[in-house]
Amino acid sequence: MTDVGIGLTGLATLIALIAVRVPIGIALIGVSFTGLYVLMGPRIAWGAMSIVPYSFTSSWILSSIPMFLFMGFISYHTQLTRGMFNAARIWLSSLPGGLAIASIFGSAGFAAVSGSSIACSAAMGRIAIPEMMKYKYHPELATGTVAVAGTIGALIPPSIILILYGVIAQISITQLFLGGVVAGLMTAVGYILVVLLRVWLNPALAPERDTSVSLREKILALRETWPILLIMLGIFGGLFGGVFTPTEAGAVGASMACLVAILTRQMTLGRFLTAARETLMTTAALLIIAIGASLLTRFLALSGAGDYLSSGILDIASSPVLLMLGIVCVYLLMGMFLEPIGAMLLTLPIILPVVDAAGWSLLWFGIVLTKLLEIGMITPPIGMNVFVIKSVVGDLVKTSAIFRGVAWFIVMDLVLVAILCTFPELVLWLPALVK
Amino acid sequence: MFMIGRLLSFLAKSSSLIGAICVILMMLHVTADVVGRYVFNVPLPGTIVMVANYYMIIVVFIALGVAEEKNSHISVEFVTDLMPPRVQTGFSVFSGILTVGVISVVMIGGWTEAVKKTNIGATMEQGSQRIEIWQAYWLVPLGAALMALIAGYRVITTVTGWRNGLNETDVNAKFIND
Amino acid sequence: NNLSFAGGWPPNSSPTAKIEDYAKAVEEYSNGEVSVRVFPLSLLSFSEINAGLRDGIADVAGNLLAYFPSEFPNLNMLAEFSELVELEEFSGELSSLAFTGAIMEYVMTSCPACMEEMSAQNQVYLGAASTTSYVLQCAVPLTSVADLEGKRIRAAGAYWARWAEGVGATPVSMSINETLEGLNQGVVDCTMSNTADFVNFGFIDVVDYVYVGAPGAQFNVPFTMNKDSWNGLSDDNKGAMLRAHAKLAADIAWVYVEEGRAGRERAPDMGIEYGPAPDDIVALNREFIAEDKDAIASIYNERFGITNGAEAADALTELLGKWTELTKDVSGGEELAEIYEAEIFSKVDVSSYGK
Ligand code: NA
Ligand code: NA
């Protein structure tokens, strides 16, 4: 069998294993180890197994994931979010699906303090889903909205993907961030439209609208929002005031959540430890998959299967439109299985020269690419954001139900990608203004 | 057999407590570094190396077994859900055996690396400080071993139908109802 | 023989382009008997490269030894002596070319302990390349030594942290990818980075002042090869590899010089003050280096029992004199490669090296 053949066989085996309910991390690690063994021999396969799990995990940047998770768990267990969502519910109560819309607003806000979409989903999932379940939102809508809204986290700065892309494509990260702001806000608006449309088509998805709320009630509801606003203010103020970096923001945010919870007299030792235990389990469940995806990236690189898949599609493209369609297909396909950073690192060596040759803006492409990679975070069979939400809801909602809830938003994502491709100036005007 | 389950459950519970304490320490350590740097111009030496090589490694690897006990490793159910219960049991035994095999590979790999790092006395530098990190490498085989034991035990109790002494209730599932 | 090269630099970057050139050179010099496949970042990250080369996941790579203090004490000590280039007789835009030559010559001809370290990690040393000198890149102005007091300055390694402590500033550790935002938001006031990273990591977009001449020192990246892969080559092919590595060392060192130049040329248009550091800072820096040279020897003696630190510093100082003379008029990578080949790589005995 050729090397590429081994790579493709590995991918097929991976899909089969995941389909029969083998834990995803185990399937990824098993296929990568076996694949490397067949391809390169025992020494290299064992070498990869001894190096990658430790080196991938011992990452300062990744440490913001448990810390943002912890912040969310504390906020949830000490009921810091109740006031905010009560206010959001009351203010948006005259809108169909008001709480789902409020959670999209919340994610966009969280996106400004979180570099990854996983952390964003994790934190918002903790805060928003229990509230939506309580108000009898359909589980698919509740979980789907939060899973998908997390992807705003990688578009609105700070963004780990955009930083890496900027380093690789050698373009200004500040400029990329400004482009990401526009794309992130457009995405938020798009998702809100989806919620409105779904509830309009099927009113049973969300509780009945309540138009009886008076202005006085709305103002009163704002009084209970201070705990979360204080934390948000602390994070924003600290980040933009130069007190700490985005990576440190997770830990500082968690500390602030603890302090506020003590102020509101909701903190107990039991809740504190429960939040820490849940952070622990969620982090381990996510990181074992990320380790597996990182191993798979090496296997695909060495087998050449990654190159084969993307260059095959690119060869067929004869016009710019076809080329763009080809690129979209490559990333949607890779996004089904790979973690975004691995997929990006694997493909940019081939894709960037092509983009350059086509005369496209690398800044614009970075934003579209991030959008495409983030779609991968919510598509089956491996959709990290969906898994984060699954770990939040436990046995109450099936993974497949969350994937169904996400499907509507994927359609909107594809529409947004089409809009960004047709009108690149949507991404480029803000960076140009600041230049 | 039941007592083995209780013992594994006790080990998982202890791991969970150590891990939870590490989550809390990580938060405090990074916050203290930020406050020290901003307020007093005295950052805590070695924070980045400590967070990456101790807190992150302990949090992830010590919790592998805990997540295995609580069945919270993420999998995709939608295909197997369509099948009859007997077939589903078959798949979960298959998946359990595969888990034991794969995580044992991680354990052996982690063990060989930990031996090498211990022999060389691996360190890392941050600023002018030198911090020993070889100890952290042992968490990989340790955490993987606990996960392999729990997964293996579950396969045995599933096949034999013996009473399983694990504490499988998922803490995550409870919160949503309260 | 089909070799893999794990590049730690991003695809599309100039160093990666030079590694591609190197791959072609290996094929040409070996008459097609050896080929090199380059994996930029997708195979191993910089923190994995040492173990990856040791276990043969890749055959050749640029190995950042500074990540592994316990594995490579001798080589790391030598790299720290790059501070010497800031002394008056060696300083200049091309000092990294001289230091690259000096350290390669010393390691390959006079440092058996370095060879043992390499061998213990199952690797063979095949040259190195130094970045340009580290300079102060700041969001706030520095007019004199007094301004350094209490400034938060990002330090990338031990030398720079000692320097910051020595001048009364606060050294801050931060990953390179966070530094841009850290500077932009004011978490740090300055970064100590080389003049090429000024452009490559986008600092050019956020700093207003670049001060050349302090703190100095350079980051040295050795190129190393898996020992079994090396000894799987015929003597002729080993010779071809060495010739290609003279080219690689020269090309990478030269690319950093070129990128540094490009940054300096772009800076004025972006309103950045780019020039020599205030005189008293440069003077303080030279005093610091004179003392730090001994400090390095004693730190490595205390931590790793290396006893010849002072002699190594003297030997490097002497070699730096020779190499400053050899490289002072170099105008391109090819010219530099010929010098490295003639003075160092062609003198290596292929039948015994790395056995
Ligand atoms: Na973000
Ligand atoms: Na996916």
TrEMBL record, chain A:
Keyword vocabulary terms for this entry: Cell inner membrane, Cell membrane, Membrane, Transmembrane, Transmembrane helix, Transport
Q: Write down the membrane topology.
A: Multi-pass membrane protein
Which cell locations does it reside in?
A: Cell inner membrane
Q: Which residues form the TRAP C4-dicarboxylate transport system permease DctM subunit domain?
A: 11-426
Q: Where are the transmembrane segments?
A: 6-39, 51-77, 97-120, 141-165, 177-201, 226-244, 280-301, 321-338, 345-369, 375-393, 405-430
Record flagged with keyword Cell inner membrane: yes
What InterPro entries has UniProt attached to this entry?
Answer: DctM, TRAP_DctM
Keyword check for Transmembrane, yes or no. yes
Q: What is its main location?
A: membrane
Q: How does it assemble?
A: The complex comprises the extracytoplasmic solute receptor protein and the two transmembrane proteins.
Q: Give the similarity note.
A: Belongs to the TRAP transporter large permease family.
**Role noted for this protein:** Part of the tripartite ATP-independent periplasmic (TRAP) transport system.
User: What name does the UniProt record give this protein?
Assistant: TRAP transporter large permease protein
Automatic annotation (TrEMBL), chain B:
Tell me if Membrane is a UniProt keyword of this record: yes
Pinpoint the Tripartite ATP-independent periplasmic transporters DctQ component domain residues: 26-159
In which domain of life is the source organism classified?
Bacteria
What topology in the membrane does the UniProt record assign? Multi-pass membrane protein
Entry keyword Glycosyltransferase: no
Subcellular location, in the record's words?
Cell inner membrane
Q: Say which family it is in.
A: Belongs to the TRAP transporter small permease family.
User: What do we know about how this protein assembles, alone or with others?
Assistant: The complex comprises the extracytoplasmic solute receptor protein and the two transmembrane proteins.
The protein depicted here goes by the name TRAP transporter small permease protein
Query: What taxonomic ancestry is recorded?
Result: Bacteria, Pseudomonadati, Pseudomonadota, Alphaproteobacteria, Rhodobacterales
